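Example record for the data management plan.
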Amino acid sequence: MTQGNLPDARRFTAINEFAKAYGAKEPLKIYDCSITRRGNCLFFLMREGAEKKLVAMFSPNRRSFLKGFISEKEGVIKIKNRVLNYIVCKCNGENASTLRRIFAFTRPRPIGLTPAIGLGDRLGLATPGHIWAVRELKVFPVLAQQSIREIDRTKRTLREVLDDVSWAVFQEGYRTGFAADADHLKRKEDAEEAFYAGFTMYTVDPSDYVNMEADDYPIDFLRERFNNLPWGDLKVSRERFLKIYLNKNLILHMPDGRVNELRFSEENLMRAAVKFSKAILFVENVYRRIRSLFGRRRFDLEVSIDEAEKPTSALEHFFIVSELKRLGVRFHSLAPRFVGRFEKAIDYIGDLKEFEENFLTHVLISRALGSYKISIHSGSDKFSIYPIIGRIAPDMIHLKTSGTSYLESLRVIARRNPKLFREIVEYSLKCFEFDRKSYIVSVDLKATPNLENIPDEDLERAFLESNYGRQILHVTFGSILTAKGANGEWLFRERIKRTLLDNEGEFYEIIAAHIRRHIEETFKI
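Corresponding structural encoding:
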């Protein structure tokens, strides 16, 4: 049942009586969208100060329905001649599991081939803003999306990521559906952890197994490496492999009338095989494990090769997909490495006409080979290419964003707590050179203005509307969110959280407006 199934008057009378009886120590906020009825119990989310809690109100004979919730407070209220019990529960992992058991809409589900947007939330607070952005729009949201690198840097777990999203979905009464993406999985064990956490999408990153040197091997050495590939694991003989691919081609019909034929020569086939075969076997190995865990249930698989050093050629795309299909790997999206630079936190760097040609080629290969989407990683803030993507293939795109929501949240800090924002910038500048090592950024710290010379009213413009500021703050998120003082307490994390919650409506609207712009320009909604 939705919240509309309980008459407003009775619903709010009960909640008002609860608020009187509860005796909050800090200001109490009720999230109206969360109010819902299930099994003759009334549920809603509230916030006391900076802490969110679940409340369930029920008749005494309905207590068994709530089995599984761990309460921190219980009580009784009287409304006229009626007695209602209530329990107050922390929004923690144990209670999130029970929430997902009772309310199916708080559980993630597979996407399939529906156009989707990934919405990473490094703070665990931005999901309501993401929901504000996607509500009423025809694009599927991946509300729980985190890479293992992000997990490591924020000291969270995949389970905590999903729990935070489930509570946010309940808070906003969002019933349209969402997915959970364990991004950039480089170990089978990480995929297993994601399964037990409840994730529905698995982005496998085989970049550690890609042999980038194969592009430059002398022909005799290349042939030796090709002959020594693990043909048993590849489930094909060398002779059969050559026969399959030397007789295989793909015709691409370009919109301007050109015809582009993809055909393997013996040399470029050997280079593709030596370069990617071990990576493909890694993907197959992880896929088989995930498949065994899910049994007959559905899940989504993405193959990510976007972190390779060079752009993915059309022939490489053709080869990778052909091999995955030959080995029986069922996947739903592929993330190639495109031409140009997809740096963190800023717009696309490169020739837009070249990108359009490159993107179109990958789309045409996907349409020809069938049944998978093109995924765009580091997709945040690439506003110059969204019109191209939206014009060519809005129906088959998975756009991934993450760090941009963290940056947009810092706008609230800059406006409402400039002292804290200055501390964050100062600390980020100290950590930047170390933190940048695993990211593609080109910012030069020498171009950064002196923080002391910037008045409070210009902090947002100086650091969140400039390339240098956005990249510095983007790559140092882990250091900021995990820094502790000598007393063991968080230096920034709790103060960031409190400032955002004290300005909750503004925070959600900033996030929503920014993400909505991504969606409208990419998916032509």
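Summary line stored alongside the record: The chain is about 45% helix and 20% strand.
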